[in-house]
Model the fold of this input.
Amino acid sequence: MSRSASTSMKEAVRRGTFVGSTGIGPDIGPATYLQITCPFDDSRFGIDLAEYLQKVGSDEAVVIRGLGSLGSGVLYDPLAELMSRPLNVGTIRSLLERFREGHTGVVFDLPCSVTARTTSYDARAPFINLVQPGSLGSTDRVLGIPQLVESKFATAVTFAGGEWFEDGVESRFSRTLSMLAFAYGDAVVASVERFLASPDVNKEVAVEAAQWLGEVDHPASRAYRKNLLEKVLGTSSAVRIRHGAAAGLAAMDDPSSLPAVIEARDRETNRGLQNFLQLVVDQLERTRACLSS
Amino acid sequence: MPQFVRAGLRHDRWLETEGREPLDFPADVLTDLKTIGDELSVFEVSGAVTAERIAIALAAGPPKREPAKTTYAVFDREAVEHLGIVIKKTDGDTIDAAVNLVHYDVHVGTTRNLIGLAGVIARSTPISILKKDVT
Done:
């Protein structure tokens, strides 16, 4: 982020208002910027932050967006991520330091929870909740989590319509789904399930969603995602979506999916997909043999 | 007979080309044939550089963050020439130096030629490689 953009955001933070694009992306809609200057105890970061939020009179959770380049860690606002690049705010520890120095802004626009990696770009790093689910805003209390997630998912799908998907290049859409999954868990997978079952689905986006189901590193929803992929493979009327499901199962590489994949292969009438399913069967059989040896 | 490889395809986009004329292909296949300056990249198969090696060179290098599943198509150079497409020898920029030596730019020129090329690729039956095999 440029120095002027950072300065502009700091001014927005001081005013306590959202002023739209500040060099990090278009307006993300209604949101409040607050500057946190009171110190936090490192080990009680989440609790202190939640208490602080109560003290300033907001019962909504937060999304933290960075100001400037602070280190190698990254926090995401799933929706802002659709419209702007990831914002580098460093590790929790460095973020804390910035809080102490009064340089970091907080955006109140994502109810329920905030999730962040505890270290930098290490994909194996655990995620922690800075604010626990349950601290919903008044509107969201009425809507409830499923509707809220559905709304966020629908927004993600809308923006995904303008994306170009490529194997091996993580799309902004799948990155957004991952962040939503870390914040909302199975509710996001349920949204994907409804999306894949809808008759007028954008197939390009649906394939990306199906592949994401298999690729995302989210152990808590793994069983749900695997069962969903097997179901989609066996029931979807769209050959491309069945392919996406097969690709997702290949990414999960779980030999317990073999019966479902073999059945799908034997039933498949599209020659190209049948060949692909054979590749998946071969891979899963190799994995099973490897695990049993 | 010399053969070209078009790599970095997304397999699902080509599934619904079976039994169809190129003009009736799903439009998403053209996403895999994105031209820049009316040109796109192909590679020529040689004794030392197999089609699979070419596909892996593209699937394992930038902008991929890590090796990924991929799909490629092998088709006759003559089929491209038959469309009236001009072929230019240029250097590639993959992670495999030997693959870079067999790189060509094909000047597709028109959407008619691009659709014709899509037909050539679809008839060749694109081949997939799963992520675990891209090493």
User: Anything to note?
Assistant: The interface with chain B takes residues 164-170, 203-204, 207, 239-240, 243-244, 247, 250-251, 253, 270-273, 275-276, 279-280, 283 of chain A (CB under 8 Å). Chain A has two domains: 3-136, 146-292.
